[in-house]
Request: fold
Amino acid sequence: MRSKLPVLFIFVTVVLDAMGIGLIMPVMPDLIREVTGEALGDAAVWGGVLAAAFALMQFLFGPVIGNLSDRFGRRPVLLVSLAVMALDYVVMALAGSIWLLFLGRVVGGITAATHATASAYMADISHPDEKARNFGLIGAAFGVGFVLGPALGGVLAEFGTRAPFWGAAALAALNFVLGYIVFRETVTDAIRRPFDWRRANPLGALLSVTKLPGLAALLLVYFIYQVATAVYPAIWSYFTAERFDWSPGMIGVSLAAFGLGFAIVQGALVAPSIRRFGHRGTVALGLGIEVATLSLLGVITSGAVVLALVPLAALGALGMPALQGIMSRRVDDNAQGELQGVLTSLTSLATVLSPLVMTQTFAHFSRPDAPLYLPGAPFLLSAGLLILGLMVFFRSKRRVA
Reply:
């Protein structure tokens, strides 16, 4: 039990990172109107600015925090981030202006950029053959956060627009206490290395890692996947309302079902898939399932069939832990934090860019005077991107079975 408590702490930390947006999403429209006095349309514009700021900070600070953990250790980086996260939520709970909310989202994006450090810890404690499975646990934690965030935020919203922030602050503080008690350092002098701003710079870190043989193509595949699958949070609510006239409650149920399926797949099915198909086979299987699912979503007209597709869509999550496992096995032990920081930055960059492209595509093909009415066009665009990703992956060097 004692050996499992640090892993529980890491799991909860990633859950909190994933909940950072979803937990407060139910109250953001009312809260922004409360502090600005503006109409809902203007509040939505501010909501987009706050979300973009959060994702941008994760992009900029992912490799910084990952490299800091390579130098100073996983424990101090994670504990300091949790402490600041708790204080940041308190500030947002008390905020009386939009600019203080904006500052809170900026700080929140930085403190939630610890996915890299959490993944590096899992790499530290894992044998080479266990890395993909343990990265799957990280993915499962993200899925749990994706499910719990909006659900818990909706429940707490019944007590007022500030209640979700107080709840988030309490969760971060409790996890800080757990980590302080049970979490032990895994960075030893044998793998510790000096902090270097050239590696901590998001672009500099990317350039330094791509110098490793065969990694550039895999990083491109990872980025394409993140851009393509970000279509779900970007347009799902709009798409299902337009195509199937779903209520907000129904949309929430569908998102929760997908998040639950995602968590189950990455937590329980990654290891068996790798044993059966190998790392490369599992990556190809996951990407292929994603292409099929996105293609169907692009043309489907039945809401019931969409719900039936949720398990298939969740199976597409098999590929990324296996791809992370391949990349992790290609870098040295003292560069695990750097690699995970780059992956976090790529994910955050995709989170900034993809909604801009996907929402514009949706708006173009769903307006009344559209030359072709096709609300599912963003899904077809994503399927095309993943086909490109598969082509890049198959052309990469076959160095890991």
